[in-house]
Structures are given as C-alpha cells and as structure tokens.
C-alpha cells in the first residue's frame, strides 16, 4: 500500500505508489503498442484514464463499471477489463479486483485474446492482494 495520507492530483488517497503505477502503465502501453489498428484507446482504456476512474468513483460505481464493460462486449472489452482489474488491484480493491479478473476470464472465453497468459497474471495479482 501507499504512503500515509498521500493524495494524488485527483484528490483521492494514494494506495499504490506513483512508481508502481508508472511501471504498470509502461507494461500496459508496451503490451498494446501498435496492436490497436489505428484506433485510439485514449479515454477508453488508457492507463491514466482508468486510474482516474478508480480513484474517483465509489465502490458501487466501480462494481457497475465491471458489469458494464462485460455486458457491452465491445471491441476493446478484454483490454479494458484487464487494465481495470490491474488498477483495482493496485489501488487495494481486493474484492472488486477479483470480480474484474473473473469477468475478464468470461470475456476471453467469449471474445478470445492474444494475451491469454495475462489473464492468469491478473488473477494471480488479485489473489496476492487478498
């Protein structure tokens, strides 16, 4: 967990360190570089956008977000859910991260995923937080 009383520019408590988030963001960007076929992910599955959502939404709204992404089964649902699960885990939302990891598995079953090895990584990360 993060420092005592640290806050971000979102005004929300800081759970994971900025360095941990920077490393996770770099890994996310490296994983998806050049694979979006010209479609921008900014505002939909960018790391910073997802982090902002997690730090500013209530737990109820975060839970609704998990269900919304899974239900929509959009073009980038797997990417969005994987990222959402990781950020939830880093921010200390153990139960929500586990729910998002389960949702990710269901999405991959339906939509497929070239990075299926990362499904296990996300599940393991959620389990480590528990």
The shape is: globular
Instruction: Spell out the helices and strands N to C.
Output: HHHHHH
* CA-based gyration radius: 14 Å
Mean pLDDT: 74
Count of individual helical segments: 6
Strand content: under 5%
Distance between the termini: 13 Å
Q: Which regions are unreliable across 5 or more consecutive residues at pLDDT < 50?
A: 1-12, 36-43, 116-120, 126-130
Class by alpha and beta content: mainly alpha
The description of the largest β-sheet is:
none
**Helix percent band:** 55-70%
The total strand number stands at: 0
Short structural summary:
Helix content is 65%, strand content 0%. With 130 residues, the protein is mainly α.
Structure commentary:
Helices cover 65% and strands 0% of the residues. The chain is built from 6 helices and no strands. α2 crosses α4 (77-90). 30% of the residues are buried.
Keywords:
130 residues, 6 helices, disordered C terminus, mainly alpha, 65% helix, single chain, disordered N terminus
Topology, element by element:
Layout: H1 18-32, H2 47-56, H3 59-72, H4 77-90, H5 94-111, H6 117-129
Helix pairs in contact: 1-4, 2-4, 3-4, 3-5, 4-5, 4-6, 5-6
